[in-house]
Design brief:
The protein is an alpha/beta fold. It is built from five helices and nine strands. The protein is 20% helix and 25% strand.
Length: 238
């Protein structure tokens, strides 16, 4: 069979059950790597690609992490500054129409005969892709699949580039920790900071001493958070 042209196109459009969209290049993730790859392809004069992003916006870790003082721990620009830079880059390189958010690439399969990748896209209720995997499971258990997933779509691509990041999904709280089931206060991960939680005059316990904690812990006893105390627990020295 002749290879598909290097353009985005609908194949078998008149056959409902056999129709699919073909992408010369499919990119998974619209964080720094995905945006950089899209920009580089544009610089090479190629724009026949699509970036699929599970979250509700671009930027990857800089979209989802919004804890107090979030910043790069190497060069120290703020998270808001980095997010703006990434967002501005998508506009500078005219990539906005190449990015599809609220869409999870949930499965990939290599088709040997066609020499193409077949990807299953899961279209999500807007905003639910920002939830952690644990929160998604809890939402589905409480409200059903339709509260998270809208529909699935099968597409094909000649090249698939994974730009999925490693700093987006928070570690789930271990249910085996004694007392978790009787603790009445709010519990959340810094990667899913709960803006609605009032820390004023509260005793706050922070588990962990990583870069995120180093950035937000010093701010919790100050305006506008005004925590009464902050106790930091570590398993090993930072």
């Amino acid at each position: 069979m002749s290879p598909p042209p290097d353009t985005i196109r609908v194949v078998n459009g008149r056959q409902k059950d056999a129709a699919y969209t073909y992408y010369p290049i499919l990119i998974v993730g619209a964080g720094e790597s995905g945006i950089a790859l899209g920009a580089r392809l544009k610089e090479e004069g190629f724009d026949q690609y699509r970036i699929f992003e599970r979250q509700a916006g671009v930027g990857g870790t800089w979209w989802i992490n919004r804890y107090p003082g979030v910043a790069c721990d190497v060069l120290y620009p703020s998270g808001a500054e980095i997010f703006k830079y990434l967002s501005d880059t998508t506009e500078k390189y005219q990539m906005v129409d190449k990015i599809q958010v609220n869409t999870d690439v949930s499965e990939l399969r290599w088709l040997e005969d066609e020499q193409l990748w077949e990807a299953t896209l899961t279209h999500m209720v807007p905003g639910t892709g920002d939830l952690s995997r644990k929160a998604l499971s809890e939402r589905i258990a409480e409200k059903g699949n339709e509260s998270v997933y809208i529909r699935k779509e099968i597409v094909r691509a000649r090249i698939v580039c994974s730009c999925a990041g490693g700093l987006v999904e928070p570690n789930a709280w271990q249910s085996s920790i004694p007392g978790r089931d009787t603790f009445e206060g709010p519990v959340f991960h810094s990667a899913r900071w709960e803006e609605s939680v009032d820390l004023n005059d509260k005793n706050v316990v922070v588990v962990g001493t990583g870069c995120s904690a180093a950035q937000f812990v010093p701010r919790l006893t100050k305006e506008p958070y005004n925590a009464k105390s902050v106790t930091q627990v570590m398993r090993s020295p930072p």
